[in-house]
Amino acid sequence: MVRLRMIFACLLTLTLGACAVFTYDGTLPGRLKGQLLVIWVGEDRFVYWPTTKDPLTFTLGPALQSKLGITTIRPGLMYTDGGSIPRALRAFDGFSPWGYGPAYIMHDWIFAAHHCLIQGRPDPNEPVEYDKVRRFTFDDSAELLAEVMKTLMVDQKVRTKPEVFNAISFGVDSVVAKNLWDSADPKSCDPVTDEDRRAIEAALAKGNLRSFVAGQRSTKRPPLIVYSQPY
Questions:
Q1: Residue of 135, 151, 64 lying closest to 101 (CA atoms)
Q2: Domain boundaries, position 73
Q3: What's the pTM?
Q4: Coil, helix or strand for 102?
Q5: Are 75 and 105 in contact (CB under 8 A)?
Q6: Which of 59, 137, 183, 216 could share a disulfide with 31, CB 3.0–4.6 Å?
Q7: What are the pLDDT digits (tens) for 10-59?
Q8: Helix (H) or strand (E) holding 72
Q9: Does 223 sit behind a cis peptide bond, omega within 30 degrees of 0 on the bond before it?
């Protein structure tokens, strides 16, 4: 029934250019490894920091590997808050907003790099990963998120709930998400500033990069770790 409702909604939006259905049972997992580190640097500004000894890396599932001709995705430095994920879906069914953190980061990276490629502003420090993103279509970005979510569920990093998987997968392949993908707004390419990069590097060098404590009013100034998880 869930799949039928998704297909019906998809048919309604076909003419608007967004339609692919990814279901829990129809998606094969990949392999996730490395460190996910998200750092708060200012009001509504969060940085995904990949400069660790073991950066977050996803080995694609067989479907995307075959289609795109690549094996892995390793997100680069970027601002993120799950921004390419519809806000209502990020906390779907009471899950922690970062429970699906690796999926959000992978999806946000494809969007961020895609927009910078469109504007001719790729990060010169990430030539290999940007070249991989060139191969992605909008539907491929949604399929990537579906594969990472399936991997998290199979690996028991989050609860296995196919209905949640289906709802989020369909949400990121919506007309709203497609419009975001197609955006020509210059602000859609938003590289991390030298100031924020230096602040994080200085905190790491001094060994005083502290964690933000959820639910408490912090007296500490940024940068602060808001999410850190090895996979």
A1: 151
A2: 2-230
A3: 0.84
A4: helix
A5: yes
A6: 59
A7: 433 333 444 557 888 999 999 999 999 999 998 888 999 997 789 999 99
A8: strand 72-73
A9: yes
